[in-house]
Amino acid sequence: MQELIIWIQKFVIETTGWGFLKTLPIELWYILFMFVFGGVVLGVVMFFAGVASYAERKVAGHIQSRMGPMRVGPHGLLQFMADGIKLVMKEDLIPAKADRFLFKAAPYVLFAGTLALFAAIPYNQLFGKPLAITNLNIGLLYVLAMSGFVVVSILMAGWASSNKWSLLGGMRSAAQIISYEVPVAVSFLAIIMIAGTMNMFDIVSMQEGGIWNWLIFRYPPFTCFVFLVYYVAAMAEVNRTPFDIPEAESELVAGFHTEYSGMRFAFFFMSEYANMLAVSAIATVLFWGGWHSVLPFSILPEPWVVLEGMGWFAGKTLFSVFLMMWLRWTLPRYRVDQLMKLCWKVLLPIAFANVIAIGIWIALT
Amino acid sequence: MTTYFKNIIVGLWTVLVGMRVTLKYLISKPVTVQYPDERCDLPERFRGMVKGDPDKCITCMYCVNVCPVSCIALDGVKSDLPKKVVNLEGKEIKKLKDVTKFDIDISRCIQCGFCVENCPTGAIYLSHDYENSTCSREDLVYHWAKK
User: Fold this and answer.
1) Nearest residue of A to residue B27 by CA position?
2) Order of strands across the sheet with B72-86?
3) Same domain as B119, residue B60
């Protein structure tokens, strides 16, 4: 990270020729780049959330033999902008008996926690260096902690709304996310055992050289099961259908965000899609070989390998997002008891059995 | 223990089956159309708005009497020069009255078609119009009689 900052500092000074910039302390550069990287991630994530909401509606429409949005722009492509403008211009309502501070804080806490997830994910490599905001040596632990952090804001929103539906939604969400954190953690454990590191960049680096080196195919069939456990549990963690009981429309109106309107609602909405992206990116990094190609060699010549890696990473991640949408419009919602049963009686034993099996395999070879 | 694993495998399999079905619909053509720009073809016996034709009406009052919701109001005066109307069987019948009032309140009409079945001359019929929204309730009462 420090090398990157110094390199950028040198690059900026050389290209602009402003020598006085050298007198600025390095800490200032750090703070500046904190904002720059934060802004880039925020922009990408918000744009993705908009496009994903459009894609979701299109996928939903076509699966149900409808067309989805068609009016704003060609094939409704600008629909998400219209939605955004609508949400910004809407009246911001706060219920009379709400806990005003918590009510206002909850969406921002949620969105901040979601954005923080993206800090540790490596997107690509540049000359053997990770292209990530920060290359944490405890990346997986950080990701796990941050995805558990979301539950705090959902509870805050549910409690502060002073509404029975919201409170029930918040409680359900707390139960669900805390439960599903466990299978996710255990499936991460299997990955950590194989990789011998929690550094996500190193985990991707060891998957280089063709599809058979991806971790999902490393110890067949156990890592496939680990992937399934991770994917199901991750979908439950980000409250996607079929696990969306915290916001089950037919039971709880909209769950924890029933009372939210305008931009505050938009933050909940965006963080759902941002969470989807984060979970998909983590699945790509851990199981699908990150930015590495399906083939053992790269198609493009040396300086363009970066672009190819970008393409692979984006392709895999977006496919995973599409898979989540596809599953959403295929499966009906679980009941609360079925949800808990699935977590504690099915996913967790399978995850543990996989960890033991992979451990024995590693010990024998 | 066997049922446990069987349930898991069956569960995964049924998810895949469901996904195959939804994928099939995802790539097939949607059945809906962009409504105001395109319209579906209506079936021949589509029951749209009930319309009246005062030139054919012989003021027999069949439709008024048969209407279950009493949405038709009909009245006529004796005509000075009686005309002849061809009925649905091809025979000519005398039209002794001029229609002075032929009101159909489509806000009440249930499109049952009883009036149409009973009309001897086809003076009342079910059209293919279905865009009947108006800004006031009075506009929903259609006056078919000539002023």
Assistant:
1) A62
2) B72-86, B92-105, B141-143
3) yes
